[in-house]
């Protein structure tokens, strides 16, 4: 990716000059003001040391940061605490036992219940007792393969309570993927359910576990929650029902404190190579990152807010902003099991209205889907309770940002575009809702206490107005500690490209004000006739057209120009498809960015290939664009999408 010569091609983003400062009323009541940046800048390590007072410690730490064995940093050395106690018991002891921890909204109609902090604490104690009676000890790994139900939170916190690191595997993964993860971290106990509801159908989780365990002879116990009532085979001597073990266990459990660096969980994420990486997070630093950033970035008021991260617990977003952040802060959250369009496309807005949700956090892909469905759907619900709305997971196109602010946020709420990764554990780059005049499409700047930069190929910081590689230049509390079982890969992947700095794998640009725009993974960057173009930048331009709902752009090999831009677009419902549409859109992009960015080819499609977590799989589109056999599609949410797109490409002029 280039550095200094890039900006001319970034016109469509640079031309974005809308600004959304917080209202005076919002700024006046905000948790965090401008001064926090100065405080953190004055002494970053001391800043984190002071933030750590929001956790309840059994033994205070002696040292905030131990960097003697970098990049194996240690935080809060000497300190001891229990993560589950921080999330539960301390709130009950403070008199908040009757506060709702989760409003659980199941997928089946009218399947809903609210669970208080007292109830959740009791259930976690029961599960902790049950796990201990099954022989699970501190340090043992436990795999969790469960739906989006309260028992999943109970399972995670029970593990945390007894110091057994969990590895939650997203319930959309296959038996092979599950087995690979269980084997990689050598889990001996699996927590699961008979099935998961998904748009009226049932995903047979237990059956998938049975299949996975054929490859995992060391797993001795599977505990099964009855969720869907599906028929399952219980293997004698291995399988137990949750309601016959956990729900019969003692409701009190004496929690023990663990070292600040005690492993809390392993979350697998895909790297550039085949084998998924087991990202290890530890206790105190991780919990602090999740807790503090939820409070800071969403201006959290735990007494009054109803907070909703509409993501899956099976990803890091769910770990940090459904479970650990919200519970450590004593938040009342929504936990929603279902899909946005089951049973109807107003489902999310119905939930916001029902619970009076005040903070909503979701992914741009969801926002663009809602755009496609039309603004009249959310307009049919009362969304006036919302006061902060957030975005995460991929760059948010300016058009999607503005639509989100307008049609969901009522033109009133700050929008926080939050950049982070499984590896970073918590939000790193984001506006602060009471401080920042937001720019649509920009994550703006590093949070107080977080140090990032954008470097060129030679590792030099790029000047304002230029793009390069995003790095984190100083350690932070919720950073990954290693890749499970592979310290070497940890060093290679993150610390060798720019020695001493964390290489995020993302491209970014500093605008003329020095604010940050994330440009997507560096492997999504194209080189067209010597010009560097970001796939995201052209997608942004396309989505800015009134005709387009969603766009994916890839760089396809081209004899003349090296790479050429090929775009796949979904038209908005009211836009008529026709031979002139592609030509019109090519000109539109040319006008927005420059002729160099004009796609060689634009293909109108009905769906884009997405992973189950909603990321567009550009690799597959590149295969189609380059007329290759389409590669591995097993991680796609809908594997038939690629057949349809390939046929469309073959028929295209
Ligand atoms: C990658 C990390 C962080 C939780 C969800 C994804 C992309 C994430 C943004 C954002 C632009 C973003 C990056 C990053 N990403 N947030 N606000 N703007 N890009 O976690 O699966 O570990 O993916 O998601 O490319 O590297 P993940």
UniProtKB/TrEMBL annotation:
**Residues annotated as domain Acetyl-coenzyme A synthetase N-terminal:** 35-87
GO molecular function ontology, one term from the record: acetate-CoA ligase activity
Keywords of this entry: Acetylation, ATP-binding, Ligase, Magnesium, Metal-binding, Nucleotide-binding
Q: Which domain of life is it from?
A: Bacteria
EC identifiers of the protein = 6.2.1.1
Q: What is the lineage of its organism?
A: Bacteria, Bacillati, Actinomycetota, Actinomycetes, Micrococcales
What's the protein name?
Acetyl-coenzyme A synthetase
Keyword check for Cytoplasm: no
| Positions contributing to ATP binding | 393-395, 417-422, 506, 521, 532
């Amino acid at each position: 990716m280039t550095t200094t010569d890039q900006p001319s091609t970034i016109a469509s983003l640079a031309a974005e000059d809308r600004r959304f400062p917080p209202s005076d009323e919002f700024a006046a009541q905000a948790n965090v003001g401008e001064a926090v940046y100065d405080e953190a800048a004055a002494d970053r390590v001391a800043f984190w040391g002071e933030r750590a007072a929001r956790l309840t410690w059994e033994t205070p730490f002696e040292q905030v940061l131990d960097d003697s064995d970098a990049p194996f940093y240690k935080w809060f050395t000497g300190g001891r605490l229990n993560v589950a106690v921080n999330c539960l018991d301390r709130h009950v002891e403070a008199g908040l036992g009757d506060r709702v921890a989760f409003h659980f909204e199941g997928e089946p109609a009218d399947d809903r219940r609210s669970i208080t902090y007292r109830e959740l604490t009791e259930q976690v104690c029961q599960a902790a007792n049950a796990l201990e009676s099954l022989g699970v000890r501190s340090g043992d790994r436990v795999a969790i393969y469960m739906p989006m139900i309260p028992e999943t939170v109970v399972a995670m916190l029970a593990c945390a309570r007894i110091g057994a690191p969990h590895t939650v595997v997203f319930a959309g993964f296959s038996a092979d993927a599950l087995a690979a993860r269980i084997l990689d971290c050598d889990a001996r106990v699996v927590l699961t359910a008979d099935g998961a509801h998904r748009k009226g159908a049932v995903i047979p989780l237990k059956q998938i576990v049975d299949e996975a365990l054929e490859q995992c002879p060391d797993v001795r116990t599977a505990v099964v929650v009855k969720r869907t009532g599906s028929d399952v085979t219980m293997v004698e001597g291995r399988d137990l029902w949750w309601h016959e073990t956990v729900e019969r266990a003692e409701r009190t459990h004496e929690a023990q404190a663990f070292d600040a660096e005690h492993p809390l969980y392993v979350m697998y994420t895909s790297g550039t190579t085949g084998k998924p990486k087991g990202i290890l997070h530890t206790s105190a630093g991780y919990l602090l990152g999740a807790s503090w950033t939820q409070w800071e970035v969403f201006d959290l008021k735990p007494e009054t807010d109803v907070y909703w991260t509409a993501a899956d617990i099976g990803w890091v977003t769910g770990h940090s902003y459904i479970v650990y952040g919200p519970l450590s802060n004593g938040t009342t959250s929504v936990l929603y099991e279902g899909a946005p369009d089951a049973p109807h496309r107003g489902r999310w807005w119905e939930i916001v209205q029902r619970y009076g949700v005040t903070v909503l956090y979701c992914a741009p892909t969801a926002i663009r889907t809602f755009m496609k469905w039309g603004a009249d759907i959310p307009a049919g619900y009362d969304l006036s309770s919302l006061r902060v709305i957030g975005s995460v997971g991929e760059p948010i196109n300016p058009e999607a940002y503005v639509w989100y602010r307008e049609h969901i946020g009522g033109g009133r709420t700050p929008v926080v575009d939050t950049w982070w990764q499984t590896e970073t554990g918590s939000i790193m780059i984001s506006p602060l809702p009471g401080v920042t005049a937001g720019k649509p499409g920009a994550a703006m700047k590093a949070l107080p206490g977080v140090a990032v930069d954008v470097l060129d190929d030679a590792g030099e910081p790029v000047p304002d107005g230029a793009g390069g590689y995003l790095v984190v230049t100083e350690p932070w509390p919720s950073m990954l500690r290693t890749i499970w079982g592979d310290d070497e890969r940890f060093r290679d992947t993150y610390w060798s490209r720019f020695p001493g700095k964390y290489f995020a794998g993302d491209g970014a640009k500093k605008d003329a004000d020095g604010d940050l725009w994330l440009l997507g993974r560096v492997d999504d960057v194209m080189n067209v006739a010597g010009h560097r173009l970001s796939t995201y930048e052209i997608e942004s331009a396309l989505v800015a057209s009134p005709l387009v709902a969603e766009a994916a752009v890839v760089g396809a090999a081209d004899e003349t120009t090296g790479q050429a831009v090929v775009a796949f677009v979904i038209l908005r419902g009211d836009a008529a498809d026709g031979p002139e549409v592609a030509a019109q859109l090519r000109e539109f992009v040319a006008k927005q960015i420059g002729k160099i960015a004009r796609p060689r080819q634009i293909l109108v499609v009905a769906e884009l290939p997405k992973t189950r977590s909603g990321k567009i799989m550009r690799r597959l589109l590149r295969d189609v664009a380059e007329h290759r056999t389409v590669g591995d599609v097993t991680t796609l949410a809908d594997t038939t999408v690629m057949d349809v797109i390939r046929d469309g490409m073959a028929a295209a002029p």
